[in-house]
Amino acid sequence: MEVIHLKYPHQLQQKEGMQPYSLALGFFDGVHKGHQAVIKAAKKEGERLQIPTAVMTFDPHPSVVLGGRNEKVFYITLLQQKLTLCEELGVDTMFVVHFTSDFAKLSPAAFIDTFIRNLNIRHVTAGFDFSFGAFGQGTMEDMYRLSQGDYGVTVVDKQTDQEEKISSTRIRQLLQEGAMEEVRRLLGRPFDITGIVVHGDKRGRTIGFPTANVQALEGTYIPASGVYAVRLRVQNHWYDGVCNVGYKPTFKDPNDKQLSIEVHILDFDKNIYGEEVQVAWYKRIRSEQKFDGIESLKTQIEKDKQAAIHYFKDFS
């Protein structure tokens, strides 16, 4: 899959010589089932027209530029993961538009001239609620109205699950609740993050439950604190495990707000410090809690471990 980074005013000013595309348009954070419906519809149009399928997304999130936010923005899927998922869906080309203040000022008509006509887009597909141009003034009705027959337009209807719209906002709320099975249903896959295994306090090793301390990549959305049945991918292999997300209240100063992600990998004894890993969340076993001593903590961790073992045995 080819990845083309664009910044307004971008370098692709002339459409002569550019191949035509069927384009899926959106931010696509999460690449959830609703997003997948848009991409699949664009791919279907591409096959009908016998042209490649492209996806146009934006980076960073518009709220970073427009919202005047001081706090960090956290993503369900970081850009690299978004690219990987789109490639798995059969996308031929990704256009990644750098979202800037100048780009945000484009009128809907100027957006279409610059990012649709000049890129030789023959068909545009987006969700029913996609908006574009300054202040999100452009709607999909405008996309069709301003086309002048230069490109076709497909609008994908609202995708629902249990009669509720599938959306990135809904998935974030479920992540805040630790409802990983519902998240998996809306994504069509387990929620997962990428991180690096770093040195921790090594306390787990001293009580018989060594853990991989995973430092998530910056901007990653982390599920609610608690204990989870997870799978961890390292060195191209997936392993079952049990993960604690939280602040380790049994040992830490309550004022220490450093979040940790610690995975006890089942049937595993390799040294993986420095390795890049993926952690995929499947089910929340319990909330994080403070114990009155190491023995009660060890007893509970063993129960959590057995719960994860049974879950994956039934899951398989």
UniProtKB/TrEMBL annotation:
It catalyses: riboflavin + ATP = FMN + ADP + H(+); FMN + ATP + H(+) = FAD + diphosphate. It holds the Pfam family FAD_syn. Pathway: Cofactor biosynthesis; FAD biosynthesis; FAD from FMN: step 1/1; Cofactor biosynthesis; FMN biosynthesis; FMN from riboflavin (ATP route): step 1/1. Keywords: ATP-binding, FAD, Flavoprotein, FMN, Kinase, Multifunctional enzyme, Nucleotide-binding, Nucleotidyltransferase, Transferase. Gene3D superfamilies: HUPs, Riboflavin kinase-like. Its EC number is 2.7.1.26, 2.7.7.2. Residues 186-313 form the Riboflavin kinase domain. Belongs to the ribF family. This is Riboflavin biosynthesis protein. The lineage of its organism: Bacteria, Bacillati, Bacillota, Bacilli, Bacillales.
